[in-house]
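FORM 12-B: Structure-to-Sequence Request
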């Protein structure tokens, strides 16, 4: 049975091969092209990963270029800002130099004017009168060389136009008389103020105040001059120098009032109290005195104070004596009061207190 089945299957295979058409090379080529051109339904994971990596690299390149562009713009902006700051600093320095030159020129013109007036004054009298006056008061005993040496010591011009030796000697005596009339500056222990002398000898207390403020200013200048070059040329260093220069300029009206003795009594008493506390290194109390001196403790006007013919209640407290805000008096007073505060701050740094509780905040 098995042999019959095998023979039958062999015969059937022969018949099929005989009846099937023979395939040509053209048909096989077309079949091959047809199978190759048909699209696949699936995408390989490797292709997806490769495409993702390419997209990531492209994004990174784009982000890096944008980052570099932003950094370039920022660097250019910083350079322009630095150049602008440098131009502003140069402009300010140029303005300061011009102001200093104008001040020096003005001082020189005033000195020349003073010398001219002095020449006119000395040249108004004749030599005969000068000689007679010199014989009477004995000023002809100084020879020309001694007169020239004395004038150089006094930092005065040694010879004026048309001036004789007798006139020169009389000028020396006049200058020495002026110098002797002005009291010598105080220093050391003489600067310690006794509050009892405010009523006993106010002129001496005014000299003590002048000496103390000038001592603080001189120490301030020495401290700033001893800084490093880099710190002195930095922004903070220039600010400190400007603050010191401004404080010295603003203190000049106070110095003039103290020299003339026409300072307000209330302001004078408060400044004396402030300096006494500062000399004792009690800077917190000195700051309290400064606050009472500057803004006072009187009631400040808020809102409308006069709305008709009747005064509002407690309006008289706005003008209580001894409680007014002197910093609002005028511009010069405000400036030298602020300069006093700066001197107080430097004094705390220069002469620190032994008690840490006395350090101002």
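FORM 12-B RESPONSE
SEQUENCE OUT:
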């Amino acid at each position: 049975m098995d042999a019959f089945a095998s023979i039958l299957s062999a015969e059937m295979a022969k018949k099929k091969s005989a009846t099937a058409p023979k395939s040509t090379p053209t048909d096989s080529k077309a079949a091959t092209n047809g199978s190759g051109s048909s699209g696949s339904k699936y995408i390989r994971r490797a292709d997806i990963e490769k495409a993702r990596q390419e997209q990531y690299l492209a994004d990174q390149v784009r982000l890096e270029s944008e980052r570099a562009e932003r950094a370039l713009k920022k660097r250019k902006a910083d350079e322009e800002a630095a150049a602008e700051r440098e131009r502003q600093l140069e402009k300010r320095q140029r303005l300061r130099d011009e102001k200093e030159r104008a001040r020096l020129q003005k001082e020189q013109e005033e000195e020349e004017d003073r010398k001219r007036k002095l020449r006119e004054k000395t040249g108004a009298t004749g030599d005969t009168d000068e000689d007679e006056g010199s014989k009477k008061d004995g000023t002809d005993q100084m020879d020309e060389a001694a007169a020239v040496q004395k004038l150089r010591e006094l930092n005065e011009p040694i010879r004026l136009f048309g001036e004789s030796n007798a006139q020169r000697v009389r000028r020396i005596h006049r200058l020495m008389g002026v110098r002797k009339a002005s009291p010598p500056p105080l220093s050391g222990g003489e600067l310690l103020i006794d509050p009892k002398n405010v009523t006993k000898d106010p002129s001496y207390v005014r000299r003590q105040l002048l000496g103390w403020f000038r001592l603080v200013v001189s120490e301030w200048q020495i401290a700033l001059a001893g800084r490093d070059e880099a710190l002195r040329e930095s922004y903070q260093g220039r600010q400190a120098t400007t603050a010191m220069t401004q404080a010295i300029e603003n203190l000049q009206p106070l110095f003039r009032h103290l020299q003339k003795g026409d300072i307000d009594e209330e302001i004078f008493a408060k400044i004396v109290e402030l300096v006494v506390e500062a000399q004792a290194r009690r800077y917190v109390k000195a700051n309290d005195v400064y606050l009472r001196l500057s803004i006072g403790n009187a009631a400040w006007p808020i809102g409308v104070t006069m709305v008709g013919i009747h005064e509002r209640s407690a309006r008289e407290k706005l003008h209580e004596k001894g409680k007014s805000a002197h910093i609002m008096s005028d511009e010069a007073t405000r400036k030298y009061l602020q300069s006093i505060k700066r001197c107080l701050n430097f004094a705390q740094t220069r002469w620190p207190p032994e008690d840490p509780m006395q350090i101002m905040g």
